[in-house]
């Protein structure tokens, strides 16, 4: 799926990176799909071919470790089929057999669409204590079938000062037009925030950001910080 950009979406050119300590012209928060650890789909029949019996019984609750911005452990339900005798698992909403949650996969896709490279997405996720390989990011983007065109520009990490001299993962990435920051709001919902520095650029970038949000399955909340 491509993300077409209006021909009117042009960015102001400039020399050098933006100054990151100034107030942004607009601030956009991206809220990703929730993982609901206590909500399960009800199995209606045995999932195995040549069976399909509706006589299934909950047999066991099984802990499952997940990689997710907010959760580290969920519970899977293990069912047994009374006809064929085989078992299968049902996972909470937003979790599947894979180790990464749906929310983490959407987050990695969103960061890539905003301008981080395949190699930089895992570096950014480390700022949230998350682990995801470059290959996993690539496969997530490829599975989504998204091709970004238009004003997507490479984002670079904003250095983080560390007294120990060790490399500290950066939660803030920027180019001369916008900055992307990872973090959680007071409710634990907002994970990605985008600050656009100039009002002229905000008007040009909004159509693109709206399509990026839709492609990543995220809700976009916009706040303009300057008067027109």
Summarize, please.
The chain has helices spanning 102-114, 120-126, 134-144, 199-215, and strands spanning 2-3, 26-31, 56-65, 73-81, 87-90, 147-148, 156-157, 172-174, 178-182, 192-196, 219-224. The protein is of the alpha+beta class and 228 residues long. This is Transposase.
> How much strand?
15-25%
Query: What shape does the CA trace take?
Result: elongated
Total domain units: 2
Order of helices and strands: EEEEEHHHEEEEEHE
Secondary-structure blueprint of this entry?
Elements (H helix, E strand, L loop, with lengths): L1 E2 L22 E6 L24 E10 L7 E9 L5 E4 L11 H13 L5 H7 L7 H11 L2 E2 L7 E2 L14 E3 L3 E5 L9 E5 L2 H17 L3 E6 L4
Which terms would index this structure?
single chain; about 230 residues; alpha+beta; 6-stranded antiparallel sheet; 3-stranded antiparallel sheet; 4 helices; 11 strands; about 25% strand; disordered N terminus
Question: What do these coordinates show?
Answer:
- By secondary structure, the chain is of the alpha+beta class.
- The protein folds into two domains: 2-7 and 24-35 and 101-224, no CATH class; 37-100, no CATH class.
- Helices cover 21% and strands 24% of the residues.
- It is built from four helices and eleven strands; from the N terminus they run βββββαααβββββαβ.
- It has helices at 102-114, 120-126, 134-144, 199-215, and strands spanning 2-3, 26-31, 56-65, 73-81, 87-90, 147-148, 156-157, 172-174, 178-182, 192-196, 219-224.
- A six-stranded antiparallel sheet has the order 7-8-9-10-2-11, covered by helices on one side.
- Strand 3 (56-65) and strand 4 (73-81) form a beta hairpin.
- Helix 1 (102-114) packs across helix 3 (134-144).
- The two termini are 34 Å apart.
- The relative contact order is 0.25.
């Amino acid at each position: 799926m491509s993300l077409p950009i209006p021909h009117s979406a042009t960015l102001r050119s400039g020399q050098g990176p933006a100054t990151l300590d100034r107030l942004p012209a607009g601030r956009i928060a991206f809220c990703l799909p929730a993982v609901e650890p206590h909500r399960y789909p009800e199995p209606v029949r045995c999932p195995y071919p040549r069976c399909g019996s509706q006589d299934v019984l909950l047999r066991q609750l099984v802990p499952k470790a997940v990689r997710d911005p907010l959760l580290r452990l969920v519970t899977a339900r293990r069912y047994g089929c009374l006809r064929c005798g085989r078992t299968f698992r049902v996972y909470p909403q937003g979790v599947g057999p894979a180790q990464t949650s749906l929310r983490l996969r959407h987050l990695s896709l969103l960061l890539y669409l905003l301008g981080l490279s395949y190699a930089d997405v895992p570096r950014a996720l480390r700022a949230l204590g998350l682990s995801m390989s470059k290959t996993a990011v690539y496969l997530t983007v490829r599975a989504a079938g998204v091709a970004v065109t238009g004003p997507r520009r490479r984002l670079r990490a904003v250095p983080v000062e560390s007294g120990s001299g060790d490399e500290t993962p950066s939660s803030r990435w920027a180019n001369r037009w916008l900055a992307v920051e990872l973090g959680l709001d007071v409710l634990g919902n907002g994970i990605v925030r985008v600050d656009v520095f100039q009002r002229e650029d905000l008007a040009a970038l909004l159509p693109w950001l709206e399509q990026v949000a839709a492609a990543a399955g995220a809700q976009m909340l916009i706040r303009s910080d300057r008067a027109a």
